[in-house]
Amino acid sequence: MAMHVDESATYYTATKKYFLNFPQLEQDIDADVVIIGGGFSGIHTALELAEQGVKNIVVLEAHYLGFGGSGRNGGQVMAGIGHDLENVKHEVGEEGLKTIFELSELGPQIMRERIEKYKIDADFTNGYTYLGFNSRQAKTLKGWEKQFKTMNTRDEIYYLEGKDVQQVIGSEVYGSALVHMGGGHVHSLNLLLGEAKACSEIYGVKIFEHTPAVEVTYGKKITVRTAKGCVMANKMVWACDSFLNKLEPELHKTTINTYAFQLMTEPLSDELINKISPIRGAYSDIRPVIDYYRVTKENRLLFGAATPLVDYIPQDLKEWNRQLMLKVFPYLDQVKIDLAWGGPMASTKNLFPQIGTLKDHDNVFYVQGYCGFGVTPSQIICKILAQGILGGSEHFKLLSSVSKPEIPFKDSMRATMCTLGKVLHQIKGYGQGRR
After folding, report:
1. Is the pTM of this model over 0.85?
2. Letter string b/e over residues 24-47, b meaning 16 or more CB atoms within 10 A of that residue's CB
3. Residue 4: what pLDDT?
């Protein structure tokens, strides 16, 4: 049976451990900060603000918490912010680039600290492996090893090549591997819901589900109108990412939605899981458009990818992803696929996430455009966003200074523009040692 990209049944919804239900907004209320979007960006920011003492925070979610990318991803916990920092080097300079590199290592640390602080049951597992197919990628991974080790002295980081690669991954298609034990994988929906539980029960954050914003009026007091009520706030945050739906024209112009797709196998034997992943970790190659996968606590393989060149939505997600999986693990040809799903991801022209305030409204903040890498970077980016909301910081000034170029023809030629972007990204990948 074909699966569709808008399937709400995912691995995450099938295995969630927190059954939270928040009401619709049905009255007019006041807030210090109102946040539109109940995914990682919205909940991370709300939690960070609450931890810093902000008392009256409102979160509005159009569907349910985790409906978007936060509940449709691979759960990969990896270092990095954006796809290619060379794209922004000319804007931030050498020192700025160094700072961003250093910040990129903090995401996993913040995630682990939050899980421990709030006792969140999110199946966090250490161990991330970056994989290379050829000598160019092997050289790139060796360079990454040096960079990671200069920034991170806490975690075990090591490089493997040749047959030694199979010490960490049960596949013969790779010739090199960089293992970063500070990374790993997480049940992203349980992480989100655990944070939302802390927001609501510990800090009194007011969360409303099935409450889409209908109209936003800016001013010294911001008014967010919904179908049954309004929120009047001193400050607001747009945290919708790929589900902005043209609500804010300025933000709509600078991102474009492309798609990623995942599958989940049936439960596998311990023997097969240990063959696939001796370290029970998470993995991705380093091509411009990656395959990414991990084993889960329930002994399943979760495998994800996006179309590498032509942007389209496969008619049968199960079979499309299964064929990619079999290129890496041909011995899984008899394994059944239980679920497949997909979803949009907002991408930017420079492949760097966007953070800042609207041009003419310094009390309206936003974060968007993770380009498919939001699970871990969102932790540190939203911490920095909260610093901006609370009065600013050098980190907020740095990240918000990165340009947000508009993407022409994105509404009338979305698939064509995404295809062109992928082709250029692939060509550039050769020069960067990622092809």
Report:
1. yes
2. ebeeebebebbbbbbbbbbbbbbb
3. 55
